[in-house]
Amino acid sequence: MLFAFLVYVVRGNADLGDFTADVVLGQVDFFGNAPSVGQAGLNIPGGVAIDRGSSPNHLYVVDSANNRVLGWNSVSSLSNGAMADLVIGQQSFTTFYTGAGLSSLNDPGGAAVDSAGNLFVADTGNNRVLIFDTPYVVPKPSPPCSVATPCMGQAATTVIGQSASTGGNLCNGGALMPSASTLCNPASIVLDGSGNLYVADTGNNRVLEFFSPDGPQNPNCIGTGSSPGCPGDLVADVVFGQGTADNIFTTGLCGVGPTSLCGPLDVAVDSANNVYVSDSSNNRVLEFDNPGASSSCIGQGVSPGCAGDVVADRVYGQETFTTRIATGETGADNATSSGFNLPTGIALDLNDSLYVIDSSNNRILKFGSPLTNFSATSVFGQSGNFALNICAATDAGLCYANAVTETSQGQLAFDTGSDMFVVDSLNSRALEYLEPVTPTPTPTASPTPSSPTPSTTPTLSSTPTPSASPTRSPSPTRTPAPTPTPILSGKMKVSPNPVNFKTTKIRKSASELVIISNHAGSVLNGTVENDLAPPFSLKLAGGFDLTRGQKKKFTVVFAPTMRGNFSTHITIDSSDRMKPLSVTVEGESK
Hints:
The protein is mostly beta strands. The chain has one helix spanning about 1-10, and strands at about 25, 45-50, 60-65, 70, 85-90, 110-115, 120-125, 130, 150, 160, 185-190, 195-200, 205-210, 240, 265-270, 275-280, 285-290, 315, 345-350, 355-360, 365, 380, 410-415, 420-425, 430-435, 490-495, 500, 510-520, 525-530, 535-540, 540-545, 550-560, 565-575, 580-590. It has one helix and 34 strands. The model is unreliable at about 1-10 and about 440-485 (pLDDT under 50).
């Protein structure tokens, strides 16, 4: 009896295969949700990653609002409220400064770990991705990372999206248009089995693929370091979401359809190299069948149903590729088993089942493998009930949207033992579910969604044989459709305007929700530029595409580190005006 009691204390609820979490980090129990800093605190975490190549597996949690990443050396020894033994982005556990240096972070998003144990972090507010070499490999004579002797303040060795020598942090490097070597508000990242990096470049409405950016370069590849198509450099090689061509890097249009994206927030890759994208503002997840495969399929590069291109082959959350309907409203208990409202994090378990964080519905949906059914088979965060979507801080609850904050980013990951790790953002915690092989609940009564059209029954291609370097190159023969001439459309209203913060204490933070709404019958599209400098920053900036009555919400954060009066401007480009709108932001600290 004593042994059983001790197991319960260490591993929380310790029940396998159910809808309740078993371990909580960032809080002392499952009923707390207060944000905090410190060695065991979290503040609106946005990402999680597992180093599956280590034994035991290492856990990393991106503590977004504290501008840092926390690490735990062993996932197998976690307990409720456990202290971290590693921090990146800060020199101690008690600070939460922002910065653009190699040892600093600014509102980081997702994270990923490669097969060598190197940590990749989407440094969202600095418009870049950072690579930290093997954080848990500590050179002697330094002691190993532990709670008593934590590792702190490691510097990144590689910067993607900005010039490492200048410490720049502007969206697209300050340029008006994106390129193959710039980023804007990158939210998340993932690596495939060959070390290729995929970046959800949210502000540019695209996903970029880099051929093994941390691997060796090919000296015989013409254009290494300057042009797409060569492995081992920091220039993107493939682009998703900007048309049928995979080599057009100078546009950042928001759209709907099998070749378009709008505000993508996460990427995942399964064991057959099929790519999944959380196309958040379109309320859907797209699947691209093995984009790197060689194929002679009729319609390749033009229409769904062919591997080897950047045309999506399957859509989850919508009945067709041309709709973007949001399903469910926070707290209204009107969700279904087949629809999303702002999906954010996505991941695949070891069986290639797909998990999607449906943020405005405060839940995680599981689509069981093989992925031939467009309705979820399980739901987490709502006690197995597909209709519910309440925000709750319990062992069975999740919170990504509430009456104050519309949505927050989330991410999930799996260790080698099939345990699921989730950042529960607005509850300021990370959760572990022990082997969540869940029973299939009975879905609530709702129309059965038809298979998305046009697409075919999913067929997983055979697992490719790993090669020393990628074989795919850009497709210079493809040309995109001409960019349409801009016309005035929509009518934008921004509230509040200006944005005025109440007096905020030094080293504290305050946030203001800003809403863009369309008051015309025509579509309003545009972009919220994420180019604010400290002490101000933006969350959920980027593109928008609004029909009449729809809203785009983003958050302005004020985090002063010194006394004084501060002022800046948010730039909003929109289709209802020839010149960008400038929204004044002011704050005072004492």
